[in-house]
Amino acid sequence: MYLDVLDLRNFYYRTQLGRVAQRAIRDRLVEMWPEAKGQTVVGFGFAAPLLRPYLDQARRVIAVMPAPQGVMPWPAGMANVSLLAEEASWPLETGMVDKLVVLHGLEPSEEQPDLLDECWRVLGPGGRAIFVVPNRSGFWARTEGTPFGFGRPYSANQLESQLRRHSFVPERAVSALFAPPSHRRFWLRTAGMWERAGRRFAPWLAGGVVMVEVSKQVYAPRKPGLKAAVTRPLKALEGVSAPKPLPAPHLVRVKN
To answer: Which pTM does this prediction carry?
Structure first.
């Protein structure tokens, strides 16, 4: 079940805890993808808070928001690049996306197989995607006070297995959001310290989210019948390179 777009907006832009979560995940994303010059970057779900670093360098940035969630104009004070779409039917051309970010899009979906097929369709050959989901071992998935407490949480292995079934190739998995999901001032002020400690001591210290990067690999199709033609070559020219002598004809003695 998707949360309403207004609830997501209020959490990420109007609460200090939401800004802490936004910064932690976005910093990790930028470490993984430091640039996107001349590329098409798309976010699905409520990925808009993570896309801002690419607005100045990418050729195109699009925030796709699912119909059950609702849509809001984004970014504020600039030309709108967000749009509303059905989970499994995005108004994007096949193979046009270079980088795809999914946040609050997979775990609440009731049509996950169709959604992943749509992610595969829009991603170009060699393109990359990062799926950000609640970590089932983390504290953030155990409280309903944040958007990470809704939907299905994952472990890294579970998410990678599901993505493999839809032809994605997992490249790497990292964790983020190590600070506790608390609005108390002490935890908010020490969030940066928790992020640094979490990266150093992971995987012993579970993060609030799992981030799995995958790629789309498209292999050249094999021509039908080529293997059979190689294993059963024609023998019409076998005698050209190594001629074999013909057997001598049977001689018949003729009596005079």
So the answer is: 0.84
